[in-house]
Structure formats: structure tokens, C-alpha cells
């Protein structure tokens, strides 16, 4: 796999005349926002746009944005209009009409029209601020079927190869986060070789069927005495799976007070509470990226991020998707992944 360091990326990125300003941390969970950002970076490289970032209002931060947790990799802008007018790309008119037919309500049409007006305002404010036409987050179009030929990088490969190259480049935790990763490994007495899983609870049940920890652990086919690191958000679920597998050593950063991740509740958390939770998530994802084996679900964002980077590894599995279709499924919207997940779980 081709490697890309930040200085090389910055040199190439800075050589493009046209630019796109991406707004990170708008309204989704951290790993969803991370996935969107990497797709936007890939879009810019393929189209020859200079990628710039606006993240100081990121819902995963406390005022500093991306650099609160990771090393900077591009120029950041600070104009406040991005908060309201630099938005995620909305569903296509085709999907909007499909929702109208399904719900028999025009609310989706009015929402789409409102978005288009805000998008026009965003582009006008950007032109006024920078004196040139600037593309925004809503202009990004992701194409997972595209073959990427990026002359400036000497890169010629698939979406997944390009995505992994960029993901590895931006995943550079700040020194204090690195220190917490090392301290976590020490405090949990993690061996050099361990397995990993994600067990999701909380508000994920609103958009997908929750999968039990038992099903996820069984997908690893673990041997007695094996150490498994679990990214979990519900302590009761974690304790249940520990009782179901007494011969395994299941460790986690999940705390007794954790009752499931609810994004809306998290969004209104106190700044230091939010920072602690995101740091803990980043530490957990980093540990899972280095686990020898990993099992998760195609409906949960941290698992999807990990599997997109490691989909080709035979020891990385989705409990709710066959290995031969995983590559095509990971890039689908959540409603499609949820349907595939539910069907797969029913059939096993």
C-alpha cells in the first residue's frame, strides 16, 4: 500500500489553484464525520482542488477543532459563516421523491429547497470573503467505484487504496493523545497480540438493529484465554458478554456509568466531558486498528472506518455481511447497510 506523509500532501495540496473549504464536525458522530472528510479530501485530489478545513465549531471539539486531537495536515480557515452555510451534501432529488412517496409528506421537498437556498447563500458569502468562487462541503461527490489516477502523487489505484492512504496520513494523534494510548495499553496490560470488537448500544437502535456482543465475539472464533479489546458504550452489555465468555479476557475503556451513546445528549455535554469522551474513542479506535483480529457491524461508524482500512485482511470480519460483499457494502448509505445487516442476522 502506498504511503503518504503530511509534508508531501501539503506540498501537492498547496499547488492547486482552485479550492474547496470543508466543514468538519457538522452534525454526525466523530467517525462518520471523519469518513466524510476523507472522502472530501479524495475528491479534491482527484479534481485538483486545494483542500482547506473549517473545524473550530466541530461537534467533537471544544473550540480548536481537528487539531485538538490530531496533527494539522492542511490550512484552516476561520470565517464564521461556514458554521451555518457550509453543509453536508443532501440526498439527491431521487431519494427525496422516494421519501415523499413513502411518507406521503412534502416536508422533504421543503427541506431540500431550504438547503438549496442556504447553499447559494454560502457560496455568495464565500465569494465575498475570498474574492473568488470557492467550493464547499455540499459540492463534494463521492464515487467509490471510481479508479483514481492522481498524477501529483504518482498514485494509480482503487477507491479503497486511495482512502486508506489518506486515512493513514490524517490519523496522526497529538502527543497527549499518543500518551493516553500508551498509558491505556499499560493500564489494561494489553499483550502484543490481541483481538478487537465493537459492541454498540444507545441511539444506533433508531436506524439499525442492534447486534448482541455474543454474536460479535463468536464471529472471531476466539480461543480460551484470548485477550479481546472491546469498544463498547453500554457497561451492562459489556458485563453480559464477559459473563457469557468467562474463559476470555475482555477489556475495555467503557465505564460503569456508560448506558449507551446518544448523539444528541453528547452534543450538549460540557466541553471537558466531550473532550474526554472523544479522546477515549480515538484511543479505542487506534487500538482496534492494531488488533490482530477484528469483528464489528456494517451499521456502526467506528467499525466501518476500521473495516474500510482493513477490509482485505482475512482476520477482519463483519458479523452482518459476507466477506465477499463487504467491499461494496461499506460505502452504501446507512439505510441500505441497515437493511443488509438485518437480513443477514435473520438468516444466520
List keywords for this structure.
alpha/beta, globular, 3-stranded parallel beta sheet
Strand content: 5-15%
Query: Poorly predicted ranges (pLDDT <50, ≥5 residues)?
Result: none
Which class of secondary structure composition applies to the elements?
A: alpha/beta
The overall pLDDT, averaged over residues, is: 92
Amino- and carboxy-terminal Cα gap = 34 Å
Note down, in words, how this protein is organized.
By secondary structure, the protein is an alpha/beta fold. 46% of the residues lie in helices and 11% in strands. It has 14 helices and ten strands. A five-stranded parallel β-sheet has the order 8-7-6-9-10, with helices on both faces. It has a three-stranded parallel β-sheet with strand order 2-1-3, with helices on both faces. A two-stranded antiparallel ribbon has the order 4-5. The longest helix is centred in the middle third of the chain and has 24 residues, at 107-130. It is globular, with a radius of gyration of 21 Å.
Question: Summary?
Answer:
It is built from 14 helices and ten strands. It is α/β, with parallel strands linked by helices.
Amino acid at each position: 500500500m502506498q504511503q503518504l506523509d503530511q509534508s508531501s500532501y501539503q506540498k501537492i495540496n498547496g499547488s492547486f489553484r482552485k479550492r474547496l473549504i470543508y466543514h468538519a464536525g457538522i452534525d454526525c458522530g466523530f467517525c462518520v464525520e471523519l469518513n466524510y472528510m476523507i472522502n472530501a479530501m479524495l475528491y479534491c485530489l482527484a479534481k485538483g482542488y486545494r483542500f482547506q478545513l473549517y473545524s473550530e465549531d466541530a461537534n467533537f471539539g471544544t473550540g480548536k477543532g481537528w487539531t485538538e486531537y490530531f496533527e494539522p495536515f492542511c490550512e484552516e480557515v476561520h470565517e464564521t459563516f461556514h458554521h451555518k452555510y457550509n453543509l453536508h451534501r443532501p440526498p439527491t432529488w431521487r431519494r427525496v421523491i422516494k421519501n415523499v412517496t413513502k411518507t406521503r409528506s412534502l416536508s422533504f421537498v421543503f427541506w431540500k429547497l431550504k438547503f438549496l437556498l442556504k447553499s447559494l447563500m454560502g457560496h455568495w458569502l464565500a465569494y465575498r470573503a475570498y474574492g473568488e468562487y470557492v467550493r464547499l462541503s455540499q459540492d463534494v461527490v463521492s464515487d467509490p467505484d471510481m479508479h483514481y489516477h492522481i498524477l501529483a502523487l504518482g498514485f494509480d489505484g482503487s477507491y479503497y487504496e486511495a482512502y486508506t492512504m489518506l486515512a493513514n496520513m490524517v490519523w496522526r494523534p497529538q502527543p497527549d493523545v499518543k500518551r493516553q494510548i500508551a498509558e491505556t495499553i499499560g493500564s489494561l496490560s494489553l499483550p502484543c497480540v490481541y483481538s478487537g470488537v465493537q459492541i454498540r448500544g444507545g441511539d444506533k437502535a433508531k436506524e439499525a438493529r442492534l447486534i448482541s456482543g455474543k454474536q460479535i465475539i463468536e464471529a472471531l472464533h476466539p480461543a480460551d484465554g484470548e485477550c479481546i479489546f472491546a469498544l463498547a458504550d453500554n457497561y451492562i452489555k459489556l458485563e453480559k458478554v464477559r459473563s457469557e465468555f468467562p474463559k476470555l479476557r475482555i477489556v475495555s475503556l467503557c465505564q460503569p456509568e456508560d448506558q449507551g451513546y446518544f448523539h444528541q445528549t453528547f452534543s450538549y455535554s460540557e466541553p471537558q466531558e466531550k473532550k474526554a469522551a472523544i479522546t477515549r474513542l480515538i484511543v479505542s479506535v487506534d487500538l482496534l486498528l492494531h488488533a490482530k483480529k477484528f469483528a464489528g457491524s456494517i451499521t456502526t461508524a467506528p467499525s466501518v472506518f476500521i473495516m474500510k482500512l482493513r477490509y482485505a485482511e482475512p482476520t477482519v470480519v463483519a458479523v452482518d455481511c459476507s466477506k465477499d460483499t463487504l467491499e461494496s457494502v461499506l460505502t452504501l448509505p446507512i439505510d441500505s447497510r441497515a437493511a443488509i445487516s438485518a437480513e443477514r442476522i435473520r438468516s444466520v
